[in-house]
Amino acid sequence: MGTTQLETVPEPKYWHLKTVLSEALDSEFAVGEILPNERDLAARFGVARATLRQALEQLELEGRLQRRRGVGTTVAPPRMGVAVESDRGSWPGAAGEAWQAVDCELTAAPAEVARVLELPADEPVHTIRRNRVSNGQPVAAELVYVPAASVPDLTAIDAPSGPARARAVLRELDRLSLEGQDRAVELGSARADDAKSLDRLPGAPVLVVTTRFFAAGRTAAVSVATYRADTCRLTFGDAGGVEIHHGPGRQAS
Amino acid sequence: MGTTQLETVPEPKYWHLKTVLSEALDSEFAVGEILPNERDLAARFGVARATLRQALEQLELEGRLQRRRGVGTTVAPPRMGVAVESDRGSWPGAAGEAWQAVDCELTAAPAEVARVLELPADEPVHTIRRNRVSNGQPVAAELVYVPAASVPDLTAIDAPSGPARARAVLRELDRLSLEGQDRAVELGSARADDAKSLDRLPGAPVLVVTTRFFAAGRTAAVSVATYRADTCRLTFGDAGGVEIHHGPGRQAS
DNA sequence: CAGTGGTCTAGACCACGGT
DNA sequence: CCGTGGTCTAGACCACTGA
User: Fold this and answer.
1) Hey, are the CB atoms on B234 and A185 less than 8 Å from each other?
2) Which nucleotides of D are covered by protein (CB under 7 A)?
């Protein structure tokens, strides 16, 4: 009975720190406001910089903060809802999409993709690269893989590569009747090329959306879309209308 | 011209390390095999332990590794596909679901939830807690919020709380005609209670699936499901049949 | 250029799991 | 009890941004 209430759970410092900071963000900071730099913050809380960073990392992961090298740490706006085509789906080229085709090449499919498409390992496929922008900032980078067999009528009129070619392939695809599609969402980290498109550092957390498109009893195409996990909330809407609003969040003056 | 090809991109050590380890996992390790401990690995690669850990953390985030305190680091099996009811949806109580009700209480809705349900801030709602298990391991923890108004005929026969009560509320909900539903997926970090259900440490990365259920022109219920991001790939199947298989992955002997 | 976040080091101690 | 991963420290240097 000598000791008075030995804390059974010595909460990690960075965890407690995260809580404190989170509450401060709600009550004392406006969206877009810049925080004190890491060295000052660490000193203010009496912890090492590495410990403070552990807390900031979590908050960034949760979309509460945005950090940029050479600039500083700012309070992030609430995540934006990004619609991921639902409702029976449509081809990736469908009108009204927010994607911008960047390039298209005829290359060997990565092993992973070849397996899903049920193709030989190094069968050439059209590989379309495109980006998606929402509210003025990049939110996703996507690779669409289309086996040559899926678009047999593709003419050689257009350039063999480049954005024009990408649009041509998607147009051909659109002529097939879509029998269904399939989606999977998982956590990943951005590859170097995707990171550049998304204006993030390599390794940044992303939500990877893999979609299979079925036509003529086969898998006619596969797309792998990489969404910024820090700024995006993927929405799959069956019911239209109301938007989900998150977080308190005042606006910066 | 004194310098010969100054490397324009000095790749971070942990990034290179991650690549090397990733390739080693593909070629030299079997699923379930345990890796050398962190101190040995760090020494072997000639880096500080913190740097090695940065690489391991990323690999764990990608679902390639599993680390457990007091035990060690093991090679993770490919992520399991976890179906998130698609196809026009159904009530959370629908038969054949893999959820196990744990508890039910009548409490004030969190601000966040109250907003989505369009209720006054501290309006009492039935709060059901349930867990989902797949392949013998916990994959998700969920909170279902049901306004009292959505289940007016709920009798007081059953206990006022506990799993029986949870089932009773879900049963009542099932009697309403579901007009539609709405889903959002985003990245989060596990709260302490969810972490315990999921057998992870607090702060572990999770995929948060927020679903709104509509009936009688209103939002009749909201569920917030927290999936382990390291072990799960959420699937939204429109087309049945084939499974997506990932990764090389031999089995441990 | 100065100031920011990003990387890295070489230690230390702690909490947990199994023996 | 020992060995594991988890937390934490106090430094250092680098890469990038913007003035």
Assistant:
1) yes
2) 3-12, 14-18
